[in-house]
Design a protein that fits this description.
144 residues; mainly alpha; Arc Repressor Mutant, subunit A; 2 domains; three-stranded antiparallel sheet; 3 strands; 6% strand; elongated
Length: 144
């Protein structure tokens, strides 16, 4: 069926519906191609902005390091906890050598060793959840 010289009177309802569906599909395809092109352009713009941002951030970090400060990329990193000197592993070592200890004694021991002890209750709760320590009574801990 050719689009040229169509006589609508001679077309059946099915032929008209087929033409309608074909035209609709063509329009949807053109619309999708336009959206895809716009997406590509926006992604390119985004990449340019990210690249520029990283360059500026690197320049600022370099100046901060030059002055002896820590950058946010290194200052805020968390320890993995798997290191030999992590607070959690030191708690486990203390409990191994001392047996049962109170939370207060654990905190005092860590602080006397020069460690900044933040969120001790959360660390102990994590060790308890992972069955590394247990609490025989409130406020006291021992190896699990």
């Amino acid at each position: 069926m050719s689009n040229e010289n169509l006589d609508l009177e001679k077309l059946s309802a099915d032929d008209i519906m087929a033409l309608y569906r074909k035209k609709l599909a063509e329009e949807e395809q053109k619309e999708q191609e336009a959206k895809n092109q716009q997406i590509k352009e926006l992604q390119a713009q985004r990449q340019d902005i990210v690249t520029e941002y990283k360059k500026k951030l690197a320049e600022i970090d370099k100046q901060i390091k030059k002055l002896g400060g820590k950058t946010s990329s290194t200052a805020g990193k968390k320890r993995s906890g798997s290191g030999k000197d992590s607070i959690s592993s030191q708690i486990l070592d203390m409990l191994k050598s001392n047996g049962r200890m109170s939370a207060k004694a654990i905190k005092e021991t860590l602080e006397s060793a020069g460690h900044e002890v933040k969120y001790l209750h959360q660390r102990l709760a994590h060790l308890k959840r992972t069955n590394q320590v247990k609490t025989p009574e409130r406020g006291f801990y021992e190896l699990g």
